[in-house]
């Protein structure tokens, strides 16, 4: 049907837009992601700050060290955003269709509950589909320094040769061979729990907003700060 084809096109358009935006933001912020990942896996992280850690990586591996695993990360974020926005738009369309069939007022707009459910469904689908990509990316980012620090034997007096960093496909195959296929889904349960992050954020935001509304009118500036506080609280709760 024409309507179904049009809706499918809209879903894909939103998914492609989200995928493109994710690629740009990932490319710009990837060095920070590298530092964050290294901080979580390296034992010597306690005595260095972010700037010192960046300098150590550059001195040891060059600027390219800050972009270890970028290839898989760009692929991962593009797939992640595509899947998320596609499923969100699909779920949203299903809710709107049901609301129109029931002749509900403002049927073209989702309720708060429907928005959260759509986000949860999209987030869960994204985690299950893309988790293997991020397992490979994290492994590549965390182990880049191992390949640089581990030297191949050379003749006396010669500088040690660095091992070549494994490729994305090489890392994927190594994980499957050495640890089994299911290792690609390590961390799925915690990641699924993280799906509640936006739900927590919205709930906290609404509670704070209602608290302010009891005393005065909420301004756009208030909404900005309350949203930031909601995100901070939700991230603090789910970070572990």
Automatic annotation (TrEMBL):
Gene Ontology CC annotations of this record: peroxisomal membrane
Region (Disordered) residue spans: 145-165
InterPro entries given in the database record: MCP_dom_sf, MCP_transmembrane, Mito/Peroxisomal_Carrier
SUPFAM superfamilies: Mitochondrial carrier
Membrane is among the record's keywords: yes
Pfam families: Mito_carr
Coiled-coil intervals: none
A molecular function GO annotation: ADP transmembrane transporter activity
Keyword Cell membrane annotated: no
Membrane topology of the entry: Multi-pass membrane protein
Residue ranges of the TM segments: 12-35, 65-87, 116-136, 184-205
Protein localization: Peroxisome membrane
Primary location class: membrane
PANTHER family: PEROXISOMAL MEMBRANE PROTEIN PMP34, PEROXISOMAL MEMBRANE PROTEIN PMP34-RELATED
Family the entry assigns: Belongs to the mitochondrial carrier (TC 2.A.29) family.
Record's protein name: Peroxisomal membrane protein-like protein
